[in-house]
Amino acid sequence: MTKLYELTTELNELSHLAFEAEDDQSFAIAIADTMEGLQMQFNDKAEALVKVAETLGANTTAIDAEINRLQARKKTIINRQTALKDYLRHNMEASEITKIESPLFTISLVKGRVICEVTDEAALPDEYMSVKTEIKPDKAALTKALKDGLEIAGARLTMSKPSLRIK
């Protein structure tokens, strides 16, 4: 089966031949018929490619669903693990047991450390707040300014790749 890029090359070559053969009517008709056949092959190949792409899209949807299912399962397992450890910690505290030794591991109940709990963030003085600043180009403003004719060092207008729209 002919590859899409080969069909493209043949169509381009025939297009150049058709331009050169405008004077020979029978040759021009033969070229037009050949181009029509190649165009039909091109269309069939494009349709097949879109079907494969859509199948791949369906596969990614199924993979996303499986990822979500596995993430939910992971979260359930982590929650269960945390609950079991909290249950053990609570009972060790209640029983005043601070250390359990076994051949496989040692379980120790370690005294907690001093931490800060923020109860009202708005009431905190500014010196106890950290500021995160993100500096990045404002592409929308740059595009508008460049379209308005301004020259801006470090920026220029270019064309993006043509997009493929399948409806």
Automatic annotation (TrEMBL):
Protein name, entry field: Siphovirus Gp157 family protein
Organism: Thiosulfatimonas sediminis
InterPro entries associated with the record: Sipho_Gp157
